[in-house]
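Hi U.,

Before I forget, here's the chain from the pilot set. I'm dumping it here mostly so it's searchable later in email.
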Amino acid sequence: MLSVELLGPLRVSVAGRPVELPAGRLRALLAVLAMSAGRTVPADRLATAVWGAGAGGDPGANVRTNVKRLRRALEAEELIAARPGGYLLAAAPGDVDALRFGRLLDDAAAEHDPAAERPLLAAALALWRGVPFDGIRSDWLEQSAAPALRERYLTALERRADLDLAAGTRPDPAGLADAAARHPLRESLWARLLRALEAAGRPAEALERYETIRRRLADELGADPSPELRQVHADLLAGGAPPEVRAVPRQLPAAVAGFAGREDELAALDALLGPPDGPPPVAVITGTAGVGKTTLAVHWAHRVAGRFPDGQLYLDLRGYGPSGEAPQPSAAIAEFLGALRVPPHRIPGGTAAQAGLYRSLLAGRRMLVLLDNARDTDQVAPLLPGTPGCLTLITSRDHLPGVVTAYGARPLNLGLLPPDQAGRLLAARLGRDRVTADPAAADQIVRRCAGLPLALAIVAARAAIHPAHPLGALAGELRDTLGTLDRTAGVRAIFSWSYDTLGDETARLFRLVAGLHPGPGVTTDAAASLAGVPAPRVRAPLDALTRANLLTEHAPGRHSCHDLLRAYAAELCEARDPDRDAARHRIVDHYVHTAHAAALHLPGPTGTTAPAAPRPGVSVTGFAGPGDAAAWLAAERPALLAALKLAADLRLDRHVCHLARALFVFLHRRGRWLDRAETQRAAVAAARRLGDPAEQARAHRDLALALADLGRFGDAHRHLDTALERSHDDPAGQAWAHYHRDLVYAAQGREADALDAARRAHDLFDRLGDEAGRAMALTDLGWHHGRLGHHGRALDLCERALILHRRSGNRPHEAHTLSCLADTRLKLGDPAGADPLYRRALDLFREFGDRYAEAGVLAHLGACRHLTGDHAAAREHWRRARAVLGDLDPTSADLVRVQLTMTDASAAAAFHRHR
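Structure:
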C-alpha cells in the first residue's frame, strides 16, 4: 500500500498514488519512521532525529503534532500507528527502498555461488538514484544513516566489479568513474576503475586516471598512492593483472636430516623446472608405503624453493590415515586461502567457487605447491594451479591416472632403495665410521630392510640408542627375528621387531597414542590422558618411543608418527586393549577441560560454562596467562577440531557443546571464522540430540555470531529467531539473544536497530538482576548512541557501565568500555581526554591477548597523537598497529581506517599514508 524511496530525492506513494510532502520536518519524520518500517520507534528518538538533540520546546508534543500532520498528508491514518512509547510505520521492509537495498546485500553476502551473488548485487545497486535522503533535513540521517548506506553502496559496487573481473566479464567503467568522481580519495574504488579500464582495452586511459589520483592524493593529503594502487600501476605498465592478496607463505616442513640417494629421481624432478611461461608442471610421486615419497618431495622442494619467490604451500591430505577420513577439498582449499591471507568473510561457499578464488590468487605468481599423501584425483584436482609459474608436487600410494591424463602430470614411481643408496642412507644416520667398521653387518642390515627407508630409519634408531652395541649383533637379531623382508611382509615386520623390545607400559602407550589419538600430534598431557596415568609417568616412555623412531618429537613436548605406524598401532590396540572406549572418552575429556581452562583466560560475550568433572586419569593442562593459553589453543587447533568430531561420533553431546563454546572466542580472534562456524554447527546438532532448549538456544546464538563474521547476516538473524523461540521460558536466554542481535546489527552497520536490540537486552538483564549482562548492554548502548551523534548520552552510559564492570570484575569488558569512552572523547575533539582511556584499555587488551582490539586501540592512539601535533608518536603507534594486523587479517587495516574515519578524516588519511 505504501512505498517510500529514500535512495535519492524522496518519493512517496500510497496505493499507487504519488504523494508530495511539503519541504521540512514531515519529510524527516517519514524518513526516520521508514528506516525502521514495521518496528516501533521511540518518541524520544524520533524527536532527536527530526529536531536534533538540543531542540527546545516539548519534544513529545512536537512528535504528536507532526505525526498527525503526516497522517493527513498521506491521507491514510492507519499507516502510522501509536505504540507504547513511540510510533510504528505500517509498512513492510520491502516497501522502503533503503531497507530493500540492505536485505538484497545481506542475501548477496550469504550466497556461496558468485553467479548467484552478482544478480542480487545488481538488483541492490539498481535501487540507488543519487544521494540518500536528498532534500530531507535531519542531522541523524545525514550523520548516521546516510554514511552507512553510502559505505554499503560503495562496497557492493566494488564487490560487483571484483566478481566481474574474476569471471572474465568486463565491469562498466562509466559507473565506476562516476562513483570515483563523487569519492575522489577512495583508493579502493579507483583501483577497480583502473582494472575495469584495462579489461575494457583502455590501458592508456587507466594510466592517465592513475596520474590523476596520484596528483590529487599528493595535493590534498600530501600522501602517496596506497600499495594496492601502486601495484595496479605497476601491472598496467607490465601489461598484467595481479592477484588481490600478496602473502608469501613458507609452509614446507623441515627437511629430514641424513637424506641420501635418489639421484635419478632428483634429476627427473629438476627436469620439471622449465620456462616460467609454460604450462604449470605437475609431478606425482608414487610408491609403496614407507618408501620415502614425502622425504624425497620435501628434500627436493627445499632444494628449489628459491626458484619460487612467491612462496611454498604444503598440505598433508591424510589420504591413508588409519581413520580413513581425509579432509574434504573445501577444507583443504580453505587452508590454502588462509595461508594466502584471504580474510574468512571473503572465502566463498562451495568448492568450485573456492577453487576459482584460489587459482585466481596464484595466477601470475611463482609458487610451489606440495600435496602430500593424496588419496585420489578428486582430492587434489581443486588444488592444482591453473596458470604458468606454479609447480605442483603430489605424493600418493595411488598412481592417480586421472591427474596424469587430465592435467598432464609426470608420474614418478619411487621404487625400493638400491643397496648402494640404502647403505649411504644408513651411513648418514649412524655415521660413516661405524658402518665402515663392520661393512658386512651393514650390508646384512640393508638387505634385510629390503630398501625401505622407513625400515632403515627404525633400525638405525635402534642402533643409535645403543652406540656400543656392535652392528653385527644387530644384524644377527634381524636375521633371527625377520629373515629377509619382501613386499608381502612389508615394513610391519620391522615395526614388530622394534615394538617387541618395548616394556609393557611403553608398548601400551604406543598403542594408545599412535592408534587412538584423533589429531595429527599429541602432547604429554594428552598422552597421559589416553593412558589414564599421571603425566610424569609417560615422559620416559615417550622418550623411549622417540629414540626408537616409533614417534617423532616435531616440537618440544609434541609427538607424531608416520601413518603406517598409526595403522599398525590401531591394529594392535584393537586386539590388545579392551578399554579403548574409556581411553577415547578420557582424551575427549582432556581436550574439553583443557580448552575450558584456556578459554577462562580469553573470556567472551557470554563467558564459559564449566563442564562436569573429568573422568579419573585425565590430565588437564594449566596456563600461566592469556598468552600461554592462546599458544596452546593455536598449536592444538587441529587436535581440538578432531576431538570435537570424536566427541560427536561417541555421542558425547555435552562435550561437543562445551568444546565448541570453549573455542568460540579463540577461533574468532585468530580469524578462523570458518572453523568457528563449523564447530557451532556441531554444537547445534549436539544440542538438538540432547533435547535441551537452553543448550540449543546458546548454540544457535553462538552460530549466529559466527555467521555474522562471515557476512551471512540473513542466516545469523534466522538463528537468533530460533534462539528466541527456544528461550521462550528463559528470560536470561532471551536477554542474551537480544544482546547477540545487537552485535549482529552492529556488524551490519544498522546502528538504530542495534540500539533497539541493546535496549531490550539491557531491560531484561536489569529485571533479572544480572549486573554483568546489564553492564555489557550499557556499554553497547553507549557505543551506539555515540555512533548516532548523542555523545553526552554515550559518555553517561559508558561511565555507568564502567562502574558495574569494575564491581563485577569483568576486566575484558572494562577494556571495551574504556575504548568506547575514548572513542567518544575523540569524536568530541578531545584527544587529550581520550589518550589515557585508550592506554588503560590497551593494557587490558594485551593482558587478555585480544590482538584485533589491541591494533584498533593503537591506531586510535596514533589518531590522538596526530591531532595534538605529535606526528612522530602518531607514526610509531600506527607502525605498531600495522605490525599487529600483519599477523592477523590483511583487511583489518582497512577496518581500522574506517574506524578512524568516524572520528577524524585527517587522522584517517594520515594512517592510510603511513600504512
